[in-house]
Design brief:
single chain; 406 residues; alpha/beta; Aspartate Aminotransferase, domain 1; Aspartate Aminotransferase, domain 2; seven-stranded mixed β-sheet; four-stranded antiparallel β-sheet; 14 helices; 17 strands
Length: 406
C-alpha cells in the first residue's frame, strides 16, 4: 500500500469536506475514527448481495453470510494472536464487552469480601460495571493511584493486592491523558498472585500491535468504531477456560443447544455469549477495517502518530496560556489541555467555527477530572491520516481563540 498521507486521505471520503466554510480538520479520533471506503464497501456489499441471517439457514445466502461472519472471527483471532477462534466473542463495543465480564465472570468467580482493582484514569465503562458487580456481590472496588503526570503508580497498585484480590481491570491507554500503561508488568505480577487481568484496549488497538498470547491477559476488550470500523461492533477476547466456566450473559437464540420448558442446555463458546441476531454487516465491516490497518502496518502508524504527537506537544508548549494535562513519558497521540482563564467548551466551539473538530468535557473520566480538580479539558487526538500541516493550522487557530477569549 502507498503510505503517502495524501494517498491515504483519499481512502477517507469524509475528510474531503468543508465545515463552516473551512477544510475539515478532524482531531477527535479518540472518540471515534473515520472509516475508509473499503469498510463502507464491505457493508454495502453485504446488504446488496448476501443479506441473510447467520447460522440458521441451509439456503445459499445464509451460508455465504455465515461464512463471511465467521471469517471475520478468524480475522480478529489472527489480529490479536488468540490461540483459538472460540476465544473471540463479538460484542456491541468495549462497554458491552466489559459488562459481559462484569456480569458473567463475577457471577461465577466473585464472592462477598473479594476485591477488584482499577485505576484513577479509567473510563466510566471500566468503573461503573465493576461498581454494579461489587454492589451485587458485596465485594470491594479498589482504586490504584496515579501521579500528577498521569502515570500509574505501579508500586502503589501492587501494595493494594492481597489474597482477596480477584481481578485487575486496567486501561492500556488512557483516553484522556494518552498515558500508555505498563500492562506487561501488571499482567506478570498478577499472574504470580493468581489474579485475573482484563485489559481495556479501546484506545490502543488502533495504534499498536497487540498479541494476547504474549501478554497472557485473561480478557481483552475493544471497539470496532475506534479501529476505523462501524459503530455498534466490538470484541471480547477471553481465555477459553473462562468462557467454558462462565454462565451466559443473555438468553435467546444462537446461545443454546437445546431448549425445553423444563431445561435449556447452552451452546459452546463463543456462541454461548452471542444471543440473538448479531450485527452481521458491522462485524464484516470491522474485519475489513482490521485488514486495512494490517495493510498499512503498525510500524508506519506508530511512526506517523508519534511524529504528530511530538510536533503538536512542542508547538503547544510554546504557548504560555496553554497547560497540558497528562505528561507521561510513554504517551499515545492524545493531548488534553486547558487554555488558562477559559472554559474548554468555549475553546472547542470557536475551533469548530474554524473547521477544527476536537473533544471537550470530562471524556467519561470524571474521577480523573476530580483528581486534577478541573471540570474538564479540551482534547486533540491524532490518527495516521492527520498531517503536520493540519497541526500548524490548529496552532494558528488556537492562538486566535486565545486572543478572542482573553
Amino acid at each position: 500500500m502507498n503510505n503517502s498521507i495524501e494517498q491515504i486521505r483519499k481512502d477517507f471520503p469524509i475528510l474531503n469536506q468543508k465545515v463552516n466554510g473551512k477544510p475539515l480538520i478532524y482531531f477527535d479520533n479518540g472518540a471515534t475514527t473515520q472509516k475508509p471506503s473499503v469498510v463502507m464497501g464491505a457493508i454495502s456489499q453485504y446488504y446488496n448481495e448476501i443479506n441473510s441471517n447467520v447460522h440458521r439457514g441451509v439456503h445459499h445466502l445464509s451460508q455465504v453470510s455465515t461464512e463471511r461472519y465467521e471469517h471475520s472471527r478468524d480475522v480478529v483471532q489472527q489480529f490479536i494472536g488468540a490461540k483459538s477462534r472460540e476465544e473471540i466473542v463479538f460484542s456491541k463495543g468495549t462497554t458491552d464487552a466489559i459488562n459481559i465480564i462484569a456480569s458473567s465472570w463475577t457471577t461465577a468467580f466473585l464472592n462477598e469480601g473479594d476485591e477488584i482493582i482499577i485505576s484513577t484514569m479509567e473510563h466510566h465503562s471500566n468503573i461503573v460495571p465493576w461498581q454494579m458487580a461489587c454492589q451485587k456481590k458485596n465485594a470491594k472496588l479498589i482504586v490504584a493511584p496515579i501521579n500528577n503526570q498521569g502515570e500509574l503508580l505501579l508500586d502503589k497498585l501492587k501494595e493494594k493486592v492481597n489474597n482477596r484480590t480477584k481481578l485487575i481491570s486496567i486501561t492500556h491507554i488512557s483516553n484522556t491523558l494518552g498515558t500508555i500503561n505498563p500492562i506487561e508488568e501488571i499482567i506478570t505480577f498478577a499472574k504470580s498472585k493468581g489474579i485475573a487481568v482484563l485489559i481495556d484496549a479501546a484506545q490502543s488497538v488502533a495504534h499498536m500491535k497487540i498479541d494476547v498470547k504474549e501478554l497472557d491477559c485473561d480478557f481483552l476488550v475493544f471497539s470496532g468504531h475506534k479501529l476505523f470500523g462501524p459503530t455498534g461492533t466490538g470484541v471480547l477476547y477471553a481465555k477459553k477456560k473462562w468462557l467454558d466456566q462462565m454462565p451466559p450473559y443473555q438468553g435467546g437464540g444462537d446461545m443454546i443447544k437445546e431448549v425445553s420448558f423444563e431445561k435449556t442446555t447452552y451452546n459452546e463458546p463463543p456462541h454461548k455469549f452471542e444471543a440473538g441476531t448479531p450485527n452481521i454487516s458491522g462485524v464484516i465491516g470491522m474485519a475489513s477495517a482490521i485488514e486495512y490497518v494490517q495493510n498499512l502496518g503498525f510500524k508506519f502508524i506508530q511512526q506517523q502518530e508519534q511524529e504528530l504527537l511530538s510536533f503538536a506537544t512542542n508547538e503547544m508548549g510554546k504557548i504560555d496560556e496553554i497547560e497540558i494535562i497528562g505528561t507521561a513519558n510513554h504517551k499515545a497521540s492524545v493531548i488534553s489541555f486547558l487554555v488558562k482563564g477559559t472554559h474548554p467548551f468555549d475553546v472547542g466551539t470557536i475551533l469548530d467555527q474554524l473547521g477544527i473538530a476536537i473533544r471537550t468535557g470530562h471524556h467519561c473520566t470524571q474521577p480523573l477530572m476530580n483528581f486534577y480538580k478541573i471540570p474538564g479539558t479540551a482534547r486533540v487526538s491524532f490518527s495516521f491520516y492527520n498531517s503536520i500541516e493540519e497541526i500548524k493550522h490548529f496552532i494558528k487557530a488556537l492562538k486566535k481563540v486565545i486572543s478572542m477569549l482573553n
